[in-house]
Design a protein that fits this description.
490 residues; Rossmann fold; 36% helix; 18 helices; alpha/beta; 5-stranded parallel β-sheet
């Protein structure tokens, strides 16, 4: 076992022994381990992969990709290359009193690594979950917590804090803090700052599902929305309380960062007012209740395209097959399983200004789905599996007489004769462009190939010919494709 593997195993063991009341900085610990591995780039023994992946909050597949040297920045989910909209901005982070407060340690780090100056404010309840010492150390700034502070209030400190910022983020925003904001109360430093705020305010609610759906919280939510307060989350999932689950989990730190970047982004948004449909990921075609026909698509390219379009101001409607990656921020997502479900979902989103079909839709499905698991019959050899063709989503919309979008872009994942097959697809399916890429295992792209990887090399086919793009990250491909869409829809 390498030294790094041994160290991570020891840290994971230590984390598991810590009680929940003392584990509020576990997120910071995991982020530290993840960064350590990204920086060291040391090989971890195969029998340690699962333990190390658990310790750093990753999947074994992600860790294997990291160990092969493939896109560690993508693995760590760092910002796309280029200056972040929060770079050079002042963010006032108000930390509410909830178990999700521990996530703010990671949130501070994520904001600062993108160039933001973070000034933390903690409620008294927040200090019960995470220490001001940890928060201040990560923010590299003093932690403010008292309204009647003898030094700060000599120059009306709560007003100064409200003014000297470009964005106020409240995370976690508890039911109590939301109610104070909605009622205009100002009986502590956090609520006084929020009442005096002139900068945009982004809140990340976090509470028990019953508290989130309570009529009082719903009233607070509607009042805050009408007051112009921006929301991120909450997400659905398991709660800290045993046996509790539902909508109420605080958005993940990276989701909050993306929302902050969106609010502070002053770049032109040429796709504002445009509605764009994107499909992404594989489809799963059931054979029986256990088995299905699928492919190796991860959805990374389609999701990156949806995110890039949203950053340019588009109203993006993503139809996603079953993937293991997070929904892109700022995008409306419909989750489906099969090709027929994806077809119905995509057509229901029309009319649209553009449609991009990046999903790797299964060409075939079982002619009849078995109601029970199909059994082997000893000595009789394999059972036959009659197949039937799935609907062609791209051709159906690309050749639609009434609802065809102004711009239709399809994908062609090929293993041979890339240009020939892609060009035939362009003509047959009524597309304006075909993004053709080589998905063969020996393509040499990104070390492990396109499917499931973080890099791509495409040939853009149109009636004007073929344009070869160099190998680049899937985020870069998405950004260039989004720029092309903006140009065509201008």
């Amino acid at each position: 076992m390498s030294d790094i593997g041994k160290f991570v195993e020891e840290r994971l063991s230590a984390l598991k022994k810590r009680p929940i009341t003392a584990a509020t900085e576990a997120g910071l610990e995991r982020s530290y381990l993840r960064d350590l591995i990204v920086g060291k780039k040391q090989t971890i023994r195969a029998d340690m992969i699962e333990k190390v992946a658990e310790a750093i909050g990753a999947t074994p597949q992600q860790l294997i990709a990291l160990q092969s040297g493939e896109a560690p920045a993508r693995f760590a989910e760092a910002a796309v290359a280029g200056r972040s909209p929060v770079d050079g901005k002042r963010v006032l982070l108000i930390i509410g009193g909830g178990i999700a407060a521990y996530k703010c340690l990671d949130l501070i780090r994520r904001l600062r690594e993108r160039g933001a100056a973070v000034r933390p404010v903690m409620t008294r309840a927040a200090a019960e979950f995470v220490t001001p010492l940890s928060v201040g150390a990560l923010a590299a700034d003093r932690v403010f917590s008292e309204l009647f502070d003898r030094e700060d209030e000599q120059d009306v400190g709560h007003i100064r804090l409200a003014r000297e910022t470009d964005l106020i983020v409240v995370a976690p925003a508890t039911a109590d803090l939301m109610a104070k904001m909605a009622a205009g109360l100002a009986n502590d430093l956090a609520s006084a700052i929020l009442l005096a705020a002139g900068a945009p305010v982004l809140i990340a609610p976090a509470m028990n599902p019953h508290m989130w759906t309570h009529p009082a919280t719903r009233r607070s939510r509607e009042t805050l929305k009408s007051d112009g307060i921006h929301f991120i989350g909450p997400n659905a999932g398991e709660m800290a309380e045993s046996g509790e689950a539902g909508v109420g989990r605080m958005a993940e730190p990276l989701e909050i960062v993306v929302a902050a970047e969106t609010l502070l982004d002053t770049t032109p948004r040429p796709l504002t007012g445009k509605r764009i449909v994107v499909t992404s990921g594989p489809t799963h075609e059931p054979i029986d209740p256990v088995r299905y026909i699928a492919n190796r698509s991860s959805g990374k390219q389609g999701h990156a395209i949806a995110a890039a379009l949203a950053r340019l101001g588009a109203d993006v409607r993503l139809v996603s097959g079953p993937v293991t990656i997070a929904d892109p921020a700022g995008v409306t997502v419909t989750h489906v399983e099969t090709a027929r479900q994806m077809k119905d979902a995509a057509e229901a989103l029309l009319p649209a200004d553009a449609a991009i079909f990046a999903a790797a839709v299964a060409d075939w499905r079982a002619a009849t789905e078995a109601d029970e698991k199909m059994k082997k019959e000893g000595g009789k050899g394999p059972s036959s599996l009659p197949l039937t063709e799935n609907p062609d989503i791209l051709a159906g919309i690309g050749n639609h007489q009434k609802l065809r979008p102004r711009l239709v872009i399809g994908f062609a994942a090929e293993t041979d004769k890339l240009i020939e097959h892609g060009t035939a697809k362009l003509k047959r399916k009524g597309a304006d462009y075909i993004v053709a890429n080589d998905v063969s295992p020996d393509s040499g792209i990104g070390g492990s190939g396109v499917m499931g990887g973080d890099r791509n090399r495409i040939t853009l086919l149109s009636s004007e010919g073929a344009e070869e793009w160099p190998e680049m990250s899937k985020d870069e491909v998405a950004a260039r494709l989004a720029a092309l869409v903006a140009e065509r829809l201008a």
